[in-house]
Write a structure and sequence with these properties.
Mean pLDDT: 91
Largest sheet: none
Low-confidence stretches: none
Number of helices: 4
Length: about 100
Amino acid sequence: MTGSSLLTHWYFHLPNFILAAIMYTLLGRALLGLIVQPDSENYIWKAFCRLTDPVVAVVALVTPKATAPVVIWLFGFVWMFWLRVGLLYLFLVLGAVPKAAT
């Protein structure tokens, strides 16, 4: 039942999953940034940076230039959260949110 619901409502689950993955990767980058140097050669740090750099670039466009990078990453986290809330609201308004199985 759950598998068929997932495939049936892919239009809701896929964007929500992608936004959640970006959101939590930004949070991970902010936390990892507290203990790793910005120019580190660590492959995990590089992966976090590579995955989140497009979102960070968009957030940096509307953020003052004097803002610390970790603040930009956290702003990105908050923006992704609100995009997910907006997506849920949009699907609620359209009546397209998957119903809970009983």
